[in-house]
Amino acid sequence: MNVTKFRWPIRVYYEDTDAGGVVYHANYLKFFERARTEWLRALGFEQDRLRDEHGLVFVVHDMNLRFHQPARFNDQLVVTCDVRQARGASMTFHQEILAADQDTRLCDAGLTVACIDNRAFRPRPIPKMIRAEMQHAR
User: Fold this and answer.
1) DSSP string spanning 25-88?
2) Closest listed residue to residue 1, CA positions, set 102, 116, 94
3) How far apart are CA 109 and CA 28, in angstroms?
4) Residues 51-70: tens digit of each pLDDT
């Protein structure tokens, strides 16, 4: 399953940077997380409602990062979110952080997100309603 690549614009704030004035490496994870949250929101799903009404949450199971160039304070960036595969209780994503011109790749990630029951913390199938919206977004 390859759903249309989602793009989310962000700006680097001072709090995102380290003493050298570049984005601290752990903050790239936050940028990726925000883009996945906004991707779900664009499909019509709020994570708190999924938890409260459907008893499910999404958790990162596996992630690989590669840093290419640094982002700096006040840079405007684009974070992408591309579902490469959805099966059973998991989705595999490819994400990138690009300069606003979208020609310069700063960081990319490959990751697997698991759908789990929020009480038992056991895997559960991705709901049909989410799969349907993912297909519709193609």
Assistant:
1) TTHHHHHHHHHHHHHHHHTT--HHHHHHHH-EEEEEEEEEEEE-S--BTT-EEEEEEEEEEEET
2) 94
3) 10
4) 999 999 999 999 999 999 99
Question: pTM to 2 decimals?
Answer: 0.92
**What is d(CA 104, CA 91) in angstroms, rounded to the nearest whole number?**
26
Catalytic residue among 16, 18, 75, 103: 18
Average pLDDT, the chain: 93
Could you give all domains of the chain from N- to C-terminal order, each with its CATH number?
6-136 (3.10.129.10)
Closest CA to 54 of 134, 136, 132, 124: 124
| SS3 category, 96 | strand
Cα–Cα distances in Å, from 46 out to 39, 52, 58, 118?
10, 10, 12, 15
> How many Cα neighbours within 13 Å face the side chain of 42?
17
The answer to whether residues 7 and 95 touch, using CB atoms and an 8 Å cutoff, is no
| Spatial CA neighbour of 130 closest among 52, 47, 60 | 47
Which among 115, 112, 111 is positioned nearest to 88, based on CA atoms? 115
Does 18 qualify as catalytic in the annotation?
A: yes
